[in-house]
Write a structure and sequence with these properties.
Elements: E1 5-6, E2 15-20, E3 25-31, H1 40-55, E4 60-64, H2 84-101, E5 106-110, E6 113-115, H3 117-123, E7 127-131, E8 135-137, H4 151-159, H5 161-170, E9 173-175, H6 176-181, E10 187-189, H7 194-206, H8 210-223, H9 228-243, H10 246-258
Parallel strand pairs: 3-4, 4-5, 5-7, 6-8, 7-10
Antiparallel strand pairs: 1-2, 2-3, 8-9
Helix pairs in contact: 1-2, 4-5, 8-9
């Protein structure tokens, strides 16, 4: 296991730790007492770590807020500053765009609260593993504002327009079981097993055909914004490109010799 690399020791701005594990998984941990409030400076710390991951991609990424909570939202104390709304929105969108653009599977591991900007950060990940007693929501409306970090767009694409409106209009929280039923999250486990489950899931992806996973992620994310004929052509182009990789050759050869699920991929 590689020693953690803290992006900052400035505890007022918050600490974001990057740990590159021997199994190919990068564990990114948020740590800003007491509630992991996502200040502009803290988002900048996270953006620096994501930039490191983009420059040298791991096999997969887990984003973790610690055993107590994921992130309780933006730092509301910054909202009263002149020009705050634009700075906060810019900070969130810079980080979530970079997180979404990583060519690896990203997993949010959520215990406790993932609210407002915290949930928006999790929505920018590919998958979400949550505790049974986690609480997720977009409560911005209770402050007289709306989500500004992507929820009005990512949430309806994930759970549908009506469910997204329900969550955003009411500001209510949902627990793990309801979040799973509506398609907001992908795994619900006991609180003590959240990180273990997310890391295990990520390790499986890290050992998989990385070029194919990156292509599938890109085609899904880009294709959903296109009309169907263009999106289908995007898939064809990616299929042809991935078919020329070493992992594709290994996968097909292994299937013919041993059946499915036995290939040992090399990430190329």
């Amino acid at each position: 296991m590689v020693a953690p690399d803290p992006a900052s020791h400035d505890t007022d701005a918050g600490v974001v730790t990057l740990e590159r594990r021997d199994d190919g998984v990068a564990l990114v941990t948020l740590d800003r007492p007491k509630m992991n409030a996502l200040s502009v400076a803290f988002l900048g710390r996270l953006g620096d770590v994501i930039e490191q991951l983009a420059a040298d991609p791991p096999g997969a990424v887990v984003l973790w807020g610690g055993p107590r909570l994921f992130a309780a939202g933006a730092d509301v104390s910054e909202f009263t500053e002149p020009g705050a709304a634009q700075r906060i929105a810019d900070g969130f969108h810079s980080v979530t765009r970079a997180l979404t653009a990583l060519p690896r599977v990203t997993i949010a591991a959520i215990t406790g609260y993932a609210l407002g900007g915290g949930l928006e950060l999790a929505l920018a990940c590919d998958l979400r593993v949550v505790a049974e007693d986690a609480r997720l929501g977009q409560p911005e409306i209770l402050l007289g504002i709306i989500p500004g970090g992507g929820a009005t767009q990512r949430l309806p694409r994930l759970v549908g327009v009506s469910r997204a409106k329900d969550l955003i209009f009411t500001g209510r929280h949902v627990a793990g079981d309801e979040a799973l039923r509506m398609g907001l999250v992908d795994r619900v486990v006991a609180r003590d097993h959240v990180l273990e489950e997310a890391l295990s899931l990520a390790a499986g992806f890290a050992a998989g055909p990385l070029a194919a996973l990156a292509a599938a992620k890109g085609v899904i994310d880009d294709g959903v914004e296109m009309d169907l004929p263009d999106a289908l052509q995007l898939e064809v182009d990616a299929f042809v490109s991935v078919g020329a990789t070493e992992d594709a050759r290994l996968g097909v050869t292994s299937f013919l010799a041993q059946g499915p699920g036995r290939a040992r991929f090399v990430g190329r």
